[in-house]
TrEMBL record:
<feature type="domain" description="NIPSNAP">
    <location>
        <begin position="151"/>
        <end position="250"/>
    </location>
</feature>
<feature type="domain" description="NIPSNAP">
    <location>
        <begin position="43"/>
        <end position="141"/>
    </location>
</feature>
<protein>
    <recommendedName>
        <fullName>NIPSNAP domain-containing protein</fullName>
    </recommendedName>
</protein>
<comment type="similarity">
    <text>Belongs to the NipSnap family.</text>
</comment>
<dbReference type="InterPro" id="IPR012577">
    <property type="entry name" value="NIPSNAP"/>
</dbReference>
<dbReference type="GO" id="GO:0000423">
    <property type="term" value="P:mitophagy"/>
</dbReference>
<dbReference type="Pfam" id="PF07978">
    <property type="entry name" value="NIPSNAP"/>
</dbReference>
<dbReference type="InterPro" id="IPR011008">
    <property type="entry name" value="Dimeric_a/b-barrel"/>
</dbReference>
<dbReference type="InterPro" id="IPR051557">
    <property type="entry name" value="NipSnap_domain"/>
</dbReference>
<dbReference type="GO" id="GO:0005739">
    <property type="term" value="C:mitochondrion"/>
</dbReference>
Amino acid sequence: MITLRKTLRKACSIGEHFKFRKDLTELRAAISTGPQQQHATFYEFRTYYIKPEQNSAFLKLTNEKIHLRTAHSELLGYWSVEYGGLNQVFHIWKYDSYAQRAGVRAALAQDPQWIEQYISKAMPMLTSQDNEVTYLVPWCKIEKPPKEGVYELATFQMKPGGPAVWGDAFQAAITTHARPGYSHLVGVFHNEFGLLNRVHVLWWYESPDQRAASRHQSHGDARVVAAVRESVAYLESQRNKLLLPTPYSPLK
């Protein structure tokens, strides 16, 4: 009986030891990588570069035939670029998994209407295409705007290391802009494929002039200035685009 008790105590001790090791490993991983994506949903960012003389024709064709594409997967938004890049369109597609996206691409390749009525006509109008796979950052969700307006896509190339290095400072810089109502935050997206350590922030404004006024006002806010100063220590470069929603964009 004594031997059995000793064996049980030893087994419990070993079990507690391994549980402690496991908990410590998970804690170290959380500290080293930062908050993690908790679901499989991702967003594909696609940018198409259009031949200048074909810009109007491309937008007209897409307006007429986009329903053939949205029959296969969810479109979050579709915009033409007004400032920050000429003759471009930018669109965001939502997927529940990589398997779903693969299935959608396979189905499109077998869809004769999509190929004959759209792809065969649209592709000669383009000079190039680009795509990135992104996740919403853990502290953000999609917030649809209250009415129609314009959008700003601000893209930040951060220093290597991921959110564990710059996540807190970046979040503070974004939330100080959003909370006082200077800007309506639609979503914050972190690259999974494409350039790494890249974060996209999608903002909404009533108009370009309202954006200019809000930006001027926020630059006089000491909280915004302090948060931005801390965040830029981790910043390598940034750029932005002003986007106009197309008639068929779910996000207006």
